[in-house]
Amino acid sequence: MVQSTPNLTKKSPKLTPKRTTSNPLISPVPFTAGELSPASESSCSAYESYLRLPELYQLWSSVEFPGWENESIIRPALQALEITFRFISLVLNDNRPYLNRREWNRRLESLARDQVELISVLCEDDETRGAAPIVDLSSSFGEVVPQTGSSAEVWKLADNEHTITVVCRSSESSLLPRLATWQKSEEISSRIYYAIESAMRRCAYTLGLGEPNLDGKPNLNYDAVCRPCELHALKKGALDHIQNPENQILFTIHQIFESWVFAAKKLIVRVGERISKEEFTKATDDCWILERIWKLLEQIESLHLLMDPDDFLQLKTQLKMKTTSDSETFCFRSKGLIEITKLSKDLRHKVPEILEVEVDPMGGPVIQESAMELYREKRRFEKIHLLQAFQGVESGVKGFFFRYKQLLMIMMGSLEAKANGSESSDLLSQIFLEPTYYPSLDGAKTFIGDFWEHDQMVGNGNGSDQRRNRTAKH
To answer: Which Gene3D superfamilies does this one have (predicted)?
Structure first.
């Protein structure tokens, strides 16, 4: 086997920020030899208790449909979408006259649409559809199969000489059908329904939330997968007694956030499994979904910008979230976020396996040379696609933390966001300013770029010589 250069970046210098135990939600995060670590156990536990993550984790991780490969990813994704429906209701019921309802409505509708789009991509190539809880509401003869525990609308569409029976099934437990009957939320609900109908056109089944289902597809048993009743039983946090209108908004934002973090973790695990099986095309699809999840996490965090500054800063004090020189950036309290950051970064270790070379302990450039050969010959284009997706994930990770730093400065002011110094800022900056995770791929592209530049210069030079020769002959 050929030997090659380790596809690893140099380790960052060790940073040892002081720890503090006085803050229930925040604690310092040390970078040890370039490794990112979560906050102290007590701080993480307080954060998890605030969001009721242990109970949510049980819902996310339950396995009820053996053989359905997508269950562990689609369930938390659907639950994040369902919490978004609750979020819409929460905002529309907020009586504060200074609330920016128009922008809240736009942002939440956009968030719902983007989540539906991601869910549809996950369902699109679901090869284990037979193991999923699918409800086919009509037989091949157009007879409607009666269903219990749901409401359904039935109508007939004329298709030349044939009449097609179409069934629109609505979940009994989801909040979306209820929002559709409320005057305040009727408009936003209808647009979400059309988004579901459009996104699920590529899939073999639809979600069963009450969307038109004009293609008459089978419906996913949404209530069995999402379990909305159990999910909404967790709508009040451990600190719900705090009298602040932004408390429930902060709580809901982070429940949606953590649901997608869990889905991302399961997706990264599947990427590794598919690479081991040499299913590179499927692994590529998963990586691009992962890149989009990172962008979605950024979108979810940006909802903080719509929170009232005075109410939020008061809530920050009530939750004892004070940022000092002895503490760290807020996002590090999420163990799940730290884990998917590491797992996303560790995809770089799959590069030698994909290129079918071994790491050279002597520092030889064989990974780079192998990548150059792959890029130029284009014979295994599915591997090229996968390596590009890897770098797309890297961009998603770094983009999230870069924008998170800007968010902190906007929400709390630059002085406090920097923890009255540079320590906290450096911890975040070290993530998005870190050198590329893929130096061998970077080097390969640099050399290919130089080759084409040189080739172009040589070509232009030869052309000039030929023109000069013709001029001299005349």
So the answer is: 1.20.58.480
